[in-house]
Structure formats: C-alpha cells, structure tokens
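queue> holo job accepted (flavin mononucleotide)
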Amino acid sequence: MEGLVCVDDFEKEALRKLGNVTRAYYRSGADDELTLKDNGAAFSRILLRPFMLRDVSNRDLSTTILGKKVTVPIGISPTAMQRLAHPDGECGSAKAIETIGGIMVLSYFATCSCEEVAAAAPNARKWFNFYMHKDRTITQGVFKRAEKAGFEAVVLTVDAPVIGKRRDIERNPFDFPPHIKLPNACPDEEELSVSKAHDDIDHGATWEAVSWIKSVSRLPLVLKGIQTAEDAIHAVELGVDGIWISNHGGRQIDTAPATIDILPSIVKAVDNRAEVYLDSGVRRGTDVFKALALGAKMVFVGRPAIWGLTVDGTKGATKVMEILRDELDLTMALTGVADIKSITPKFVCSRDSLSKL
Ligand SMILES: Cc1cc2nc3c(=O)[nH]c(=O)nc-3n(C[C@H](O)[C@H](O)[C@H](O)COP(=O)(O)O)c2cc1C
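queue> job finished
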C-alpha cells in the first residue's frame, strides 16, 4: 500500500489487480455513465470558503446519528459481494468502520452473514440493508435476524425496482463463483444464488410497503435511493427515520442528477423531520465536508471500500477509511471549523456566486 495516499490511488491499483469480470461489476455505471461521472464532477464544481484566525487546534469529528454517537460521520454503503474483492469481504469493511468509528451498512447481497460481520466487528455500528421479499414473512424474519445480530437500523433500497443497464457488465457477463454464498438474502442455505435472490425480490413494492415495515419493525427505517424532494416528503410523512440520497453510484438510471446537486432541495423539504444522508461519488475529505455543509448528517462511500479491500483486505479498507477521515479533519482545520455542527452552508459556494458574495 506504500505510495497510495488517496482514494483515487486505491482505485487505480484495484482496477489494475481485478479481473475483467469483477472489475466491470464493481466499476461500471448505467448506460453512458454520465451520472457516474457527474457524481464526482459535481463535487469539484463546488468551491470551499476557508475562514481564518479561528482556533482549530482541537477538532472533534464526532456527531450523533439516530440518537447515538459516531466518531466520524463517514460510513460504508451496502455493496454486494465484497468477497469477490478479497476473502475478508464484508467482515473487513466492518472492521475498517470499527477502526474509524463510522457506520457499516451490510448489503442484502453480502457474502458474509450478518452474524459473521457482528462477530468480526462487535464494536462497529451496523445497519442492515434489505430489499422487500415477495414473501413478507421472510422480510420480517430478516428484521428479527438483523436485530438479534446487533444491527441497529434497517435500510430499504428503493432505487432498484429493476437493475440498471450496465453495458460493461453485459460485455463481461457475470460468472458467480460456486464457493461464494449470499447468506443474508435467502434463508435457505442450500439454494443460495444471485438469480434466485433477485427473483425473490418484490419488484412491485410501493409506498404501502414502507407503512407495512413501520408497522412490523421496531428498528429505525432508512430509505436509500431517494432523489426528489417529493419522495423525501412522502417518506417523512410515513415516519421514515432517515432519507438516504443516492443514485446507486450512477448504476441505475443514467442522467439522474449528481446527489450533491439535489441535496439542498431535499434537506429543505425534509426540514429536520428526519436525518438526511448521502452517497455516490464521494472520494475525498473535501467531498464529505461539502455534503455536511449542504445539510447531510452522514456521508457514505461504496466503491472506495471495495478498492481498499481489493488492494489489501481489511488493512486496505481501513487505510481508505482513515484517509477519508484524515482528509475531513484537514479540511475542517483549513476552513476554520473545529466541530461537525459548525460546518454550515456558508463554507461552500459556486464559482458563479463568487462575485455576488
Ligand atoms: C458493486 C456494487 C454493488 C452494490 N450493491 C448494492 C446493494 O446490494 N444494495 C444497495 O442498496 N446498494 C448497492 N450498491 C450501491 C451502493 O450502496 C452505493 O449507493 C454506491 O456505491 C455509492 O456510490 P459510490 O460507489 O460512488 O460511493 C452497490 C454499488 C456497487 C458499486
């Protein structure tokens, strides 16, 4: 890992190491990959406004998420099949989160079970990602299992009623290695397979499912994949605890806007009635800072953790998360803020607005 000093360094090294099929699976976005590219470009369009002569000698990156402390407001998004990157898989990502004190979100299509992840990183905060099963008794069972394993919240993915068209994956068709299992998606250990797990999903789920989840689960509910103020308001009215702005890392509907561009309108619509989180395209501490400035309470990364895992398993994922934490800390010091609650919209601006300030 020597010489790898930023997330982009890890990405380059991981892309070099991975085989064609796995590289295509992890890297690709939908269609022309315009949203994939814009997710990153949009962060670069936002400028920082550093303030001077403030005491930033002691900085505190901690904050409160769903009523409990995190040491740093950075987490790992649910990404499927992390054992294709490294045998440590999701356990490695969870350990990385345990080290930095963020939140690990385990994918429904994880290759480590929620019990394994809990045992590997007992002190990490963990949330459980899920899709609605056609058989709701199974979904209810999933909640109970996740809660028993110490997962604190459930995260419903709402932006994938079907899978987006990822051309690179079509060119490099996915060949699921038989030794890899999906122990969370399907309770019957003998029948685990990606296509079965996908077939079992209720692709017709509507807002009614959200009301149902609220009525059967005691765990806080987060909706992941919200991209409009209208949907955010709907979610809040149904009592959802967290609105997770995401375009699935540009993998679902191409030409959807970059998440950082829609964050302000959604924060305004939610009006503190739920927490707002964001992922898609976050690669630097300055990106995290910009999302916090525009109203996100917590910021997540998907592929960066995979690049870390690919490069050096748990150690690589940990290094990536430490880099992001340290870059956030540095950004705070250089913009003149000593704690997370002081990161407000005045610290960011667009190039066009510079002459009007
Ligand atoms: C390989 C891969 C697998 C993913 N699997 C899931 C998943 O199982 N559930 C889910 O809600 N999102 C999934 N996502 C989306 C991520 O949770 C996250 O929204 C996205 O990766 C964020 O963008 P970033 O990779 O630019 O950080 C996946 C993304 C990738 C790249």
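queue> Residues 57 and 261 are 32 Å apart (CA to CA).
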